[in-house]
Amino acid sequence: MKRILLMAMLIAISAAGALSAAPEKKISQPFEYSGYSSKEYDSYAKTTYLVEMSDGVKLAVDVYLPDKGPKRDKFPTVMEFTPYSRAFISAAFKPLEKTKAKNLMGGRGAEIPMPFCFSKLLLERGYALVIADIRGSGASFGHRLDLSPEIGRDGAEIVEWIASQPWSDGSVGMKGGSYMAISSILTASRKPAPLKAIFIMVYPFGYQDIYVGGAFNQGFITSYAELLRTMNLNMNKTAGTFPVMPSAPAVDEDGDGELLDEIPLDKNKNGDFLDDYAYPDNPNDPPEYADGSPREHLYYLATRDHLKNASLNDWISKALFIDSDTAKLGLDPSFGNFSGYDISPIARVPEIMSSGIPLYHVGGWFDAQPRSTMTFFSTARETNPSKLLMIPGSHILMSPFYKHLGVSQDKTLKGVETETLRFFDRYLKGIENGIDAEPPITIQVMGKGWRSENEWPPARAKNVDFFFSESNSLSTAQGTAGADSHKSDFSHDSSFGPRKGNRWLMYILDEDVPDRSELDKKCLTYTTAELESDIEVTGHPVAHFWASSTAGNGDFFLYLEDVHPDGRAVLITENPMRAGFAGLKDINKIILRGSTGVEVLPKLPWHGYEQADYVDGIFNGGDVVELKFDLMPTSWVFKKGHRIRLSIATSDWPTFRLDPALSPSNNPAAPDNILPTVTIHRDAARPSRITLPVIED
Description:
This protein is α+β, with helices and mostly antiparallel strands. It contains twelve helices and 29 strands. Strands 3-4-8-5-9-10-13-14-15-16 form a ten-stranded mixed beta sheet, sandwiched between helices. A hairpin with a 2-residue loop joins strand 1 (27-29) and strand 2 (32-34).
């Protein structure tokens, strides 16, 4: 519970301190906003509904209306559509925790709104807030296949329902990060007329965010799928990295004003009430409740529906290619037949572009998906009013890099909340605050500060080649011809610190920035001499090298690092690549095989990832293979006296599944593993290098 409250203090930010203390002065610029709207309401009135979808499934919807302020009959509405429960409930909250929850998240009694969704700021400024459980989660009925287009259909129906309510002025916006960003994207693709704008943060965009460079991110998917399962089954498990509490019931069936007693008794006290009863299969074994009152068992039956959810890990872990057919992966055919193309949010970009809906993107330099953020922004900005904000955060917006850079994490996250208000004031309330007239991009140039840009990547960036050279050096001048060999070490693990987090695990953070100085001993490295002046790298670094191997297959994991004078090697950006996908393809095909005609930007290396694109045994016969792929985008200043390093590993286990051709059991210590020696070739015909986008002062 303490972890949830701590996150809420930073993520579900109150309006206090977020805006200027001088509302009479008009200011509207990134992170600063006053004089255009002001705090008007001190409280809210909350009502919960079960809203019936067109197929008869009922979804739980919480409506928060501003209260204790000017009398208004109608409000613009901001909606979040979540699989993580619109609100939690627990009898274990201590008095101090209840007070904090009330002040930070609007909690009342044993109930706390989902901290990533609730916005005290928007309520105070005269917005209605709607938080809804997607089907198969929380107190909603039904079951689902995650990422499926059905989520967008439900979202659009809720948007239309909102617009039809007597308290709605007919204008709706959506916001959210990660899954809630996906649900916003899927909903917007349905083009419901009342939906006017979406504010989306740190979102995965498709197959390439799960099979990164063709390598399966098992570390995240396996743990996340289990977390999602326990949440969706309304379990009560308070131990572990992320405590899970049951969702607040939608209906107070006994009418006593308490929702806690709507949750069936957990008779065996294992945190799971479903395994205590056989109802409705056995009508004589109905759920029991603390007060003994009779019920229709709405909460129990809704939760029981969730047992039919498709396990995310069970099918994604088998989808080795972007064109893998879900019908062949053991998925219940009732969910339909999809490939990685169809079920990716990026597949919905053409509909969103044709709608022209305004978009605000927030990404984190240390998130797992900043490439996706840049792709959506750059591709749709000509058709949709678009804003982009890049912060030095991870998937949950926080990160140890704020402290490392001397940037206030608290002020940055409050700034994100301020941007939410500026955006919705413009597009839901019609306030001419200038957000659409200023430069569309704000980035944290790490080592310099905040800066506005007009395009991504910045057109003034100069691509500078840093060549792999003799003595493991990295140089702007091509060195002596040669080759460098490295014996694979499957014990290489990029996670760091006591909590063993990294960008790919998304919600696991550590207290300090990742120092790879020890891990680099398990890698092949190339390092520059001490820099004679600062070098700013802003854009997409691209590695381009030639490799051979004593095995037919293999993976390459690249890490770009800032080596400090004291020897610390701080990880800046990274990316893996499965060698069998070395062939370059048209990046426009990332959207539904290129069938829509959408021009995908920026033009980065793309490797197809279809089954036909994969070359099994690509290194057989001693073949030297050309590999070209981008690292995650960044904006970092390498300081004078520091050095730039590129380290190359051939595994990152347990975050990424080992290449099954080299480790059939996916075990780095298995005796039947093949541990190849890989060789990087560098000569005039094969100028192995990394190209850095450098911006000169």
